[in-house]
Known about the structure:
101 residues, 65% helix
Amino acid sequence: MSKQEFNQLTELEKLFIMKEWENKIVFESTIVRNAVLNAEQNMNRKKNSRFIELHKKRQKKMDRNYTTNALQVILANEELEGKLWVDQIYNANGLRKPRKQ
């Protein structure tokens, strides 16, 4: 942003920019603090205790009804049409089909 563009901003817009910059600084310092505390806690953990991860892995829970219904539809479709779609993918990519072991 050039100085001319900055001067064209209203005071309210400038305040919003300053507030977002402040939020960014707070967020970054919080992340660094959490990393340091986590590293210190892991360094001082008891022998044979679990390592504490910095970020928890978030994974959505599986919807069993949706998954079972989708699997039934796929299996029914394969019974009707077969697995020709697999051969078409290999042929389109110039690959040969892997052998069954």
